[in-house]
Amino acid sequence: MTFRPAAATGMPLDEVDTPCLILDLDAFERNLTRLPESLRGKSIRLRPHAKSHKCPEIALRQIALGAVGVCCQKVSEAEALVAGGVGDVLVANEVVGAAKLKRLAELAKQAQVAVCVDDAANIHDLDAAMRAAGVTLGVLIEIDVGAHRCGVVPGAPAVALARQIAACRNLRFAGLQAYQGAAQHVRKVADRREAIARAVGQVQTTTRMLAASGIPCDTVTGAGTGSYMFEAASGVYHELQAGSYIFMDADYARNEWTESGIPQFEHSLFVWTTVMSASAPDRAVVDAGLKASSVDSGMPRVADYSDVDYVKASDEHGVLQLKGATRFKVGDKLKLIPGHCDPTVNLYDWYVCIRNGRVEALWPITARGAVL
Fold first, then answer.
1. Considering the entire predicted model, what is its pTM?
2. DSSP code, position 42
3. Beta-carbon neighbour count of residue 277 at 10 Å?
4. Would you state the pLDDT for residue 4?
5. I want to staple 328 with a disulfide (CB 3.0 to 4.6 A). Which of 108, 271, 320, 332 is the partner?
6. Helix 98-107 and helix 120-133: axis angle, to 10°?
7. CA of 338: how far to CAs of 49, 69, 284, 293, 344, in Å?
8. DSSP secondary structure letters along 143-201
9. How far is CA 200 from CA 98, 157, 236, in A?
10. Helix or strand holding residue 103 (H, E)
11. pLDDT tens per residue, range 283-314
């Protein structure tokens, strides 16, 4: 069920109901253009990860600025994006189970779709599902380059899977998925750079072995907001999957950025919240708790107030500690910078898009809750 938005176009920000998700359009648009501009002159494609925003409206803006398509994590996310007009989607994840494979096959009739694998039995099932639907699907082998999540061991195990894909009638070997997700929030630039250098070495080993086996690898895809310039400079990556750059969250803000070559992106995404209690001189309580902002990467940060900390979250309450002269009264509204943008977005149905203190647009978060 999609609930009505907390605002209407033209409404002053102060009148927007809370809690809601607001998008500062000026900062968002600067971020949107800053990343492709940072890649100017480099022979590399951009395929932003749409799990960050779950919104076809944003995906189409990224594509208009040169992205070849987008990534997503779930078949249901891909369905929402394709229904919204996106024509090229990589499901940068493994898809398992007959029901999901059937839906993936149907989606491949509507758009350019690819998927990742790291298992021989999954390849067999994918081929059978695509054959039953009469389609051919691009398949990338995911290799574990340090995140220790999904992914086959680089080198010979990946080559064996590539041979299996090449022998399938309805699958096409489309390259390697090599995302080092664990490196994205490594704080020091030198440590992040070193982690990506190790990943690059593992990719090089695998592509050399593929070439020696007569299997061309036209695409190596991966990278995130915290590291993408390192992958871009490596000479082995063809596509970059950065996603959070459009929003930036409190966790990314804790990274070091100087000398990384990565532009300083701005916070553009906020949870708009109201003070609901101010009964103690050193404390205020807002109406944005666990159901309004994800805390898996730490508490949200209070924007515009250096002497106020968000220190505790319960289901519907957020407790602020007032450390300096700032005081709030009941009814005051303020912005929170989410600790982690992706799961926070997934809590809302709408972006309330703000420019010059007024609501300019309302964008539906079409793939909200798309977990199948």
1. 0.96
2. S
3. 15
4. 82
5. 332
6. 50
7. 18, 26, 18, 6, 7
8. B-SSS-SS-BPTTHHHHHHHHHHHT-SSEEEEEEE---GGGTT-SSHHHHHHHHHHHHH
9. 34, 17, 7
10. helix 98-107
11. 999 999 999 999 999 999 999 999 999 999 99
